[in-house]
Amino acid sequence: MSQAAAWEQQSAAAAAAPVLSAQRVEKTYRNGTHALDEVRLDIGRGEFVSLLGPSGCGKSTLLKMFAGLEEPSHGHIRWWGGNLATVGTPERTLAMVFQEATLMPWATVEQNVRLPLDLRHVPRAQADARVAASLKRVGLESFHAVLPRELSGGMQMRASIARALATSPNLLLMDEPFGALDEFTRNKLDADLRDIWSRQDLTVVFVTHSIYEAVFLSSRVIVMAARPGRVIADVAIDAPGPRDEAFRMSAPFMQYCKTLSDYLTLANQQGDGHEAQH
Q1: Cβ neighbours for 276, distance < 8 A, ≥ 6 positions apart
Q2: Structure confidence by residue, pLDDT tens digits, 97-147
Q3: Domains in the chain: ranges and CATH
Q4: 3-state secondary structure of 207
Q5: Of 49, 53, 137, 169, which has the highest C-beta tally within 10 A?
Q6: Which long-range contacts (CB under 8 A, 24 or more apart) does 262-266 make?
Q7: Are 50 and 221 in contact (CB under 8 A)?
Q8: Long-range residue pairs from 120-124, CB within 8 A, at least 24 positions apart, any chain
Q9: CB of 224 closer than 8 Å to CB of 231
């Protein structure tokens, strides 16, 4: 096989690999807490996958592993079929949005959104264009010069999302970003996030405690059992067409919510350790 053919074969294999793969991942902390137990999970390009489960089941721990912020005690995480060094190469970048907006209070919205680009030494003109595009994408273009304290909680979270999008990520990790917001604001941001995801080549992994949010946003919902966390259900949300208020009131939406509620009941009872497909 020629070198060119070998390179093409390797490139095709990398393209076919999951964006994220958890391979028998376990996590036990130094204090003896067994947080995760043999988690097996593949996430493909372009999916919107929500992690749903009881408090303390390891959803955020798993997300931090996906971000490279924590390491498994056993097992492996793979990004695009490779190790952590794969992340940051062309078309293999990730960004994370935390539960809090974590904005610099002394900096304007524009400066906050530009921060990761400044840290990467992106040329100023290019950075300005990307910041402007990100702020427009989340509806904050008119608030670029204000300080975070002048924004509502929902607008602060929009700024945090804009900061993540400014890096042009292929993989976006979100740790229950809307949990502290009122229901109206949360529903609006869910709709905006779904629209952003649908318009670009973006894979999203989203942690939530809300069944309704998971069904509205996701192409798949992964249900995790109570500690030690493990996957007990992998539910595809097969709902073509717009995800809007009509969808929230539809019979399929309610049925998906009922299915996930039943799995959460099982999750709170610890389950039997066997993964279910739906």
Answers
A1: 232, 233, 234, 263
A2: 998 889 999 999 999 999 999 999 999 999 999 999 999 989 999 999 999
A3: 19-93+170-278 (3.40.50.300), 104-168 (no CATH)
A4: strand
A5: 53
A6: 263/223, 263/232, 263/233, 263/235, 264/52, 264/53, 264/54, 264/211, 264/223, 266/225, 266/232, 266/233
A7: yes
A8: 120/167
A9: yes
Q: For residue range 227-267, what is the model confidence (pLDDT) as tens digits?
A: 889 999 999 999 887 889 999 999 999 999 999 999 999 88
Indicate the residue type of 209: H
Longest dimension (CA), the chain: 62
Lowest mean pLDDT among 30-39, 108-117, 205-214: 30-39
Q: Which two tokens stand for residue 235?
A: 């539910």
Q: How many CB atoms lie within 10 A of CB 254?
A: 13
Break the chain down into helix, strand, coil percent, rounded to 5: 40, 20, 35
DSSP-assigned letter for residue 183 = H
Place of tokens 């492996």: 76
The structure tokens 């992994």 sit at: 205
Q: Report d(CA 111, CA 131) in Å as an integer.
A: 9
Dihedrals phi, psi of 59, to nearest 5 degrees:
-60, -50
